[in-house]
Amino acid sequence: MQARASTRESLPAGVKWFAANCEENIARLRIGLTDGSYRPSRLTRVDITKPVGGTRVLDVPAVSDRAVERALLDILTPHVDPFLSPAAFAYRPGLGVADAIQRVAEFRELGMSWILRSDIEDCFPSIRREVAVERLMFVLPDQCLRSLLEMLLARRTATKRGLREVTGLAQGTPLSPMLCNVVLGLVDDALLDRGFGATRFADDVVVACASQQDATEALAVTNETLGGIGMSLASDKTEIVSFEEGFCFLG
Questions:
Q1: C-alpha dihedral over 216, 222, 223, 226, to 10 degrees?
Q2: Which of 209, 206, 175, 171 is nearest to 188 (CA)?
Q3: Which of 114, 123, 150, 174 could staple 209 via S-S, CB 3.0–4.6 A?
Q4: In Å, what is the CA distance from 60 to each residue of 70, 151, 169, 173?
Q5: How far, in Å, CA of 196 to CA of 46, rounded?
Q6: Greatest CA span in the chain, whole angstroms?
């Protein structure tokens, strides 16, 4: 009982308020979503200090909006996950870092001895929201969620200098990781269609190739595909190396 009380006391005030009036709040959200009167609140910008230095900027939804987004995520995942390629390992049920590393190791065992290694530059901020919505709508059975999704993606964020527009997808919302996967599926598909051994964990990309020349071609394919949606690779994190030289992937 003491452990439960301690956990409850450590929760943010908004979470405690929502939990204390849970049934009423859920009912209110249900009515708003059903009759179309629901309007999401603004996001709140939070700077998180990274363990290795620097800060990570999050734009966090209000508790009630997080509940809506989590419910949406539960509805959308069964439609989205089968649409994702075997190269994608982040933000997916039942998959994780170990699975991504195992896939890279399997490519090595198949004799693919060269690697294109890169990250995507400013991944979430550079994703065009309209591209994310269109890609998502493509896999859904109808368009009934479009207006709700567009409202959630259009939220502004409260900063120390007042309300600001969010560039790209807001980091800190439940839906953004899934939408990131949906958009970057374009890169996965382009590489897999050319026969390259692609492995992607969020914006971390490894492409296993049989030769250095193939790795150079894979880089060109990746750049071309990302350029078509207004994104790019981080030049300072892009390299073509052999397995013998070694490289770092997911720590």
A1: 180
A2: 206
A3: 114
A4: 13, 15, 12, 6
A5: 39
A6: 63
Asked whether the whole model's pTM tops 0.70, one would answer yes
**pLDDT value at position 9?**
54
Q: Which two tokens stand for residue 1?
A: 């009982």
Q: How far apart are CA 60 and CA 58, in angstroms?
A: 6
For 124, the token pair is: 């979430």
Nearest to 208 by CA among 109, 104, 119: 104
Q: Which residues of 232-247 are buried (b: 16+ CB within 10 A; e: fewer)?
A: bbeeeebebeeeeeee
Rg of the chain (C-alpha set): 20
* Beta-sheet strand order (sheet of 204-209): 197-201, 204-209, 114-119, 239-242
- pLDDT above 90: percentage of residues in the chain: 82
Cα angle 57, 63, 68 (rounded to 5 degrees) comes to 105
Beta-bridge partner residues of 119: 204
The 10s digit of each residue's pLDDT in 157-211 is: 998 888 999 999 999 999 999 999 999 999 999 999 999 999 999 999 999 999 9
| Nearest one of 197, 14, 12, 230 to 109, comparing CA atoms | 197
Other CB atoms within 10 Å distance of the CB of residue 126? 18
